[in-house]
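Incident log, structure service

09:12 report received: a user says their structure output differs between two submissions of the same chain.
09:20 pulled the input from the user's history:
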Amino acid sequence: MSKIFWALAGASTFLLVACSQQAATPRATPMDTTAIATAISANETQWNADWAARDAAKIASHYATNAVVMVPGVPILHGRDAAQAAIAAGPLADHDFSLTFHAEDVQVAASGDMAYSRGVYEEHDTNPHTHHVDVSNGSYVTVYRKQADGAWLAVADINTPQPAATPASAHP
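09:34 re-ran on a clean worker, output below:
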């Protein structure tokens, strides 16, 4: 009987010590992913305002210094500086250009260090052949990474236009 008593006493002591050490270990605070998603949505609202203001530096400031931007018809842009130069020389050189976009979904990693937004955009630009303003729509995905200063900046941005509408007369 004494062997059983000491075995139970030892096991109980072990469990008490293990539980007290586990309780003393601080648990990671869960990330408030809803607040992060709200912050990213607010950032995209400001980004739209920066496009409306036609300010290439402010537009590009939403990108991390090592961001990758992929836009149809343009070579891949590597870095904020390349994005800013391409924005200034490309779309902002067209006085009729405008861009608006809206996230339909923002997802945040449970770790709280990465997120993405997915949504739709509308773009107006001058057709170089007809000189009329064309309107195109499409979708985008932007990947965000939390920076050392706590800011959320885009590290990857890609968009794809919807197919051009086929005129009704083109159908048999």
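09:41 both user submissions now match this output. Likely a transient worker issue. Closing.
09:42 reviewer note: The CA atoms of residues 56 and 83 lie 9 Å apart. The chain has four helices and six strands.
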